[in-house]
Amino acid sequence: MYYLNYFFIFSIIGHIIESFIYYNGNSGILLGWWTPIYGIGVVIILLINNLISKIKTNKIIRILILFITSAILLSIIEAIGGYLIEWIFNYSFWDYSDYKFNIGKYTALEMGIIWGLCSIIVHFIKPFFDKIISKIPKYFTYILIILFILDLFFTIIIKH
Fold this sequence. Notes:
With 160 residues, the protein is mostly helical. The chain has one domain (2-159). The protein has helices at 2-22, 36-52, 59-89, 109-134, 138-159. α2 crosses α4 (109-134). The two termini are 30 Å apart.
């Protein structure tokens, strides 16, 4: 439940942030108010952070390792996600071809740096969100799971 709740919270936060940045209310592939790449990204950051916390070194080195590892892994996941969305829905939701340091259509060094910075932010805000997540009842998470699955189903039917 812990990681699922992080997934849902940050999928929704990511959707809200993107909706304000792009002003079109169309963030991601799903019909509902969540953009799963952000939820997946935060869960991966949490898993990386857990692994790195076991390394016996100073905190600055661990944060640097978190930054680099997250930047690389999340850029790869973003690229894979972009190609999968294009393959499944025959549509591109983002295109980094115009970025100076693009690595293909669906990822760029600039975005990797943003993912790395986000990993550091997540590292520092985690204690705050852990308190919120510990208060979320299981039934609410189950409701979100059902809504998310329904959203996936209807998105595939409508957009495919």
